[in-house]
Amino acid sequence: MGRSIMTMPKGIEMYKLLITVFICLVLSSCSSVPESSKESETDTMTPLTCKEAALDIYKSLDQESINTLQETEKEDLIQFHLGWGMGIRNSYGLWSEGSPIRKSCAAMSGEQDMHPDSASSVIMELVWDLVHESM
């Protein structure tokens, strides 16, 4: 029985097949974004200021987090420094030296720049204010 080229490519045929598959994979990865993952421009805007970051966080709070903030004194927000604060610092790029959010938080405090820990504290206080204003 003879072997068909279609079922058992060899040598140059195998090479051509691999190149074709590779090109197809590369081209498919360059295709446009699926409709299901498209969002309006305002839904995907990255916050650029301290207040925008606080509002972004406020909008994402679940009821349990809102209740916790309502029951927490502003002076006691430091208890969230390692958990929530770290999430803010990492998620909003506060470790970046040129972070516009960090610089915005500093400006609100009358400074040119501030440590990411301090910037996340400013943001947490703004979120706390938003929660308490909505009570």
Helices, by number, come to 6
The percent range for strand residues is under 5%
- Overall mean confidence score, pLDDT: 82
Sheet with the most strands?
A: none
Helix content: 55-70%
Query: Stretches where pLDDT falls below 50 for ≥5 residues?
Result: 35-42
Q: Helix/strand-derived class?
A: mainly alpha
Cα distance spanning the termini? 83 Å
Order of helices and strands: HHHHHH
How many strands? 0
Determine Rg (CA atoms, Å).
25 Å
- Give the overall shape, derived from the CA principal axes: elongated
Overview of the molecule:
By secondary structure, the protein is mainly α. The protein has a domain at about 50-135. About 55% of the residues lie in helices and about 0% in strands. It has helices at about 10-30, 50-60, 65-70, 80-90, 100-110, 115-135. The longest helix has 19 residues, at about 10-30. The N and C termini lie far apart (about 85 Å).
Topology:
Elements: H1 11-29, H2 50-60, H3 63-71, H4 81-91, H5 100-108, H6 116-133
Q: In a few lines, what is going on in this structure?
A:
By secondary structure, this protein is mostly helical. The chain contains six helices and no strands. Helix 5 packs across helix 6.
Question: Which tags fit this structure?
Answer:
6 helices; 135 residues; mainly alpha
